[in-house]
Amino acid sequence: MENHIKQCAHAVGFSLIGITNTDLSAYATRLNEYLEKGQHATMAYLEKHNPMRLDPKQLMPNVKSIICCALNYWPDGTNPENILTDKTKAYISRYALGRDYHKVMRKKLEQLAQKIKEKNPQLNYRCFVDSGPVLEKALAMKAGLGWQGKNSLLLNNQIGSYFFLGEIYTDLDLINDDTIHHNTHHPTPNLRHPVLDTGSRSTRSVLYSKNIIDSAVKPRNDGEQNNHCGNCEKCLNACPTKAITAPYQVDAKRCIAYLTLEYKGIIPEEMRPLIGNRIYGCDDCQLCCPWNSFAKTTQEPDFNPRHNLDNTTLIKLFSWSEEEFLKNTEGSAIRRIGYECWQRNIAVALGNAAPNKKISALLISQLNQSSPLIREHITWSLNRYENT
Ligand code: SF4
Ligand code: SF4
User: Which residues are catalytically annotated?
Assistant: First the structure.
C-alpha cells in the first residue's frame, strides 16, 4: 500500500512524499518556547491552536497516518538577483508569482486521496494546505522530507527549499518512513566556510557549485534527514533585517515576509529602509542557501508568473486601481493581503528607490485619495526624497 501511495503521489506531480505517524511530542518544547518568547508577533492564531497543532487527533480523531507531500514551485526563467538590485523594480516572493498554491496543492492532495480511495473505499481522510493548525514542518521532517535549516525552513538535499508542503490525514494504518524515498543519490553542495566566503548573491551559481566536498554527510535511516547546514551561516548573514536572531530562530517582528504579508498595521520606521524593494514576501534566506543550487524548475504550469510579476516596476504596480488589483490578482495568493497592504508595501519600496520626479509625482497624486495607513507610508517616502 505504501509503495502504491508513493507512486500515485509522483504521478500526481508531487516532488517529495513521505508517511509518518501522529506523535509530535518531541516538538512540543521548541514550539512552546517560540511562543513564550513572543517571536510569533501578532500571529495569535499560532498560540490559540497550539494544542491542536501538537495533537493531530484533535483535528481528526481517527487519524493514524499522515501523508506529507511537497510540491516544487521554483518558476522558470526568473532572475531574482537582478530584480533585487534594481530598486525601480518590484520584488515579489517567487512562490507567489503564479496561481495561489493553496488551490494547486489542495487539488493535487485531493487527486492523491481519491487514487488511494480507489484501493481503500473505506478511507477517511482530511487534506491540509495551511488550512488548519498542522505542524507541517515537523511532520514533514518526521516523514523524511528534509531537515529544518538555520533559516527555519525545511530543506531537502535533493531539491533545496523552494517547495510547498501539504498533508493528508488518514485513518489508514501505514508503515512510517525511515528515510526519503524519491531518490537514493545524496549530493552535497559546496558549504564554504562562512568566514572565508565573501561571495555575493550574484555569483552564487559559481560559488555554490555542485562539488561534493562533504562525503561524510549521509542521511540517517531513522526518520529525519540529517541536518546538513554544517558550519554555514549564509542565511543569518544574508537576512536584510537580521530577523534570524540565532540559528533556527526567526523573529517574526523583524521578518519582511511577516511585515509585508501578515502584518496589517504601520510598518515600524526603522524597518522600512531595510525592506528595499520587497513588496510581497522575501526570499533572501533561501536565495543564498547552497542547497538551493539543487532546486529544480517546477513542472507545474500554474506556478508560472502572471502579469509579468517577476519583472515589473514599482511605478506600474503602484498605479493599479483597487479594481485592477483585484482583477490582476484573481486566483493568486497576493490577493490575500488586500489592496491597502499592497499599496502600503509599494509605497515603502518607492521610498527606497532612487529619487526621481516621476515617483514623487505618483506618490503625491495618491496621497489624498489613500487611506490613513497608506498615507503614513507615502509621507515617509516623500520625506526621504526631500532629505536626499
Ligand atoms: S524571509 Fe527575509 S527577512 Fe525573513 S528571515 Fe528570511 S531573509 Fe530574513
Ligand atoms: S544558508 Fe546555510 S545555514 Fe542557512 S539554511 Fe542554508 S545551508 Fe543552512
Answer: 130
